[in-house]
Amino acid sequence: MKKWLTFDLDGTIMQNPFVKYVFPEVQRNIIDKCSYEYNVIQELFNEHYLRVKNKRTVEAYDWDDIVEQHIRKQQLELRINIEELVEKHSTLPKVYLLEDESLSVLEYLKEKGYSLAAVTNGFYKYQYPVMRELGLTRYFERIITPDQVGYGKPDHRILQTLTKDGEIIAHIGDRLDDDVQLANAFGIYSVFIYRQLPYHLLTIKADQRSKDVEIKKILESKWKRETQNQLNSLTESAIPDIIVSSLYELKDIW
């Protein structure tokens, strides 16, 4: 019986090439075909947010479809393949691990007997090239993505496939709306990674930090940013069980 620890990828373990390289190239390619300047990237994200709002979570992360739809709307003779752009830009230092100790922490957890799975809203074709470049693939037995299972975070059904051969212990991620809510809904430990944690909170045990007055203000602020102020206050479902300032702190927990 496997003991699964599941991890978010972007913002938790690694930096993908979308913001700095893929989207700017899309912007340039489209503007080159247009007769006027406008913010292509913002238009793409508006469609992304609309799909998320309408609970079309899987479609919200299909960037090939979002870009293709935008090109049709603009009536341009142009083909852009996001998968190919991700492959092109998935090279060091364009992509990188967020912590120098990331691989050693994953190795430690595996040596402790845990099975590791990546659970991400990014499509497999966008995530795998980055993981391969960063040497992450050897540590994860499973890579769970919306295009594979038909669900996206925070829908807890994205985790169901892992329960067929084991028990899920915890999910680790950097977002309250996706990662923490996912874990809480599934009834497993929710581990929130926040690398700007105030110094004095580092003296508090990781499973006690969410009770601190200052961290509650931090969580409230982050929740509003993630939900674009659509929800007034932090909900109980988005409060993490455990808060860590780095992946390295996971070694103190498991």
TrEMBL record:
<dbReference type="InterPro" id="IPR051400">
    <property type="entry name" value="HAD-like_hydrolase"/>
</dbReference>
<dbReference type="GO" id="GO:0016791">
    <property type="term" value="F:phosphatase activity"/>
</dbReference>
<dbReference type="InterPro" id="IPR036412">
    <property type="entry name" value="HAD-like_sf"/>
</dbReference>
<dbReference type="GO" id="GO:0046872">
    <property type="term" value="F:metal ion binding"/>
</dbReference>
<keyword id="KW-0479">Metal-binding</keyword>
<keyword id="KW-0378">Hydrolase</keyword>
<keyword id="KW-0460">Magnesium</keyword>
<dbReference type="GO" id="GO:0044281">
    <property type="term" value="P:small molecule metabolic process"/>
</dbReference>
<dbReference type="InterPro" id="IPR023214">
    <property type="entry name" value="HAD_sf"/>
</dbReference>
<protein>
    <submittedName>
        <fullName>HAD family hydrolase</fullName>
    </submittedName>
</protein>
<dbReference type="Pfam" id="PF00702">
    <property type="entry name" value="Hydrolase"/>
</dbReference>
<dbReference type="InterPro" id="IPR006439">
    <property type="entry name" value="HAD-SF_hydro_IA"/>
</dbReference>
